[in-house]
Amino acid sequence: MPPVLTSPLVSTQWLADHLGADELVVLDASVHTAGVGQTMTWSSAQDSYEQRGHVPGARYADLVTDFSTPDADLPFTRPSAEHFERAARALGITNTSTVVVYDDSVGEWSARLWWIFRSFGFDDVAVLDGGFVKWRDEGRPVRIGSLKNRPVDAAEAFFAGEERPLWADRSRVERAVDGSQPAALVLAADETVLGTEHPPLVPGTTPITLGRVIDQDSNALRRRAALADVFAPVLAADEIVTYCGVGSAACVDALALTVLGHDHVQVYDGSLADWWRREPEPIAS
Fold first, then answer.
1. pTM of the predicted model, to two decimals?
2. CATH number of the CATH domain containing 66
3. Same domain (yes/no): 82, 111
């Protein structure tokens, strides 16, 4: 029997207690960045996964290529169902797996992969609260080297479900801006990541950056009551759209809102990388 998830988050102790369980798949979704703002670049963290270590038994999930659309105009464009299925199958995931995702940063990459799984109807997935940073800092076991993925029998092949409306596009954001389809617009990226000089943000934005959502001491999400205070300006909105630079940090805010029980959250796929490609239409007076 695979472990049963009761929350979008699992603790380091939960993962330690369930390592090696039947049908548990642990994924390291780390991505490494360089630069800021419009000059930022992204690269696979597989070398770090192999050489600096990972949670024992964890498999490396490459968000840069395998879980994004190859050759898309924007980085980290969400994958098609077929591309997602191939990537999941290659990691030995089946529809009866329980998946736990982490990264070696503040959780934006693990939250992104978690959101992708959920968007294709797969709910047996959770984020390791505090990620590899918390796991390592607690002195828990770390393994060096790569892990050979278990081949999946054709009868066990992973199939994506119908895509859920968990993503927003530019048109949806524009309707939120002009008021024709209201939604609270939440920016997750910190200004230090966006750079000191950048084009305007989406009008009407409420900044709720990762520094306010992640506890700096534990690297985990802040406690529920603290999160409720942080998100108080937008929690009453019927719909919320989160965004950032490319749609990664936005998934941490989406995760926090899900923990708080908000059922109508979308992530702007492409985020500012898409918004800044052309000037928005003027808002009618």
1. 0.94
2. 3.40.250.10
3. yes
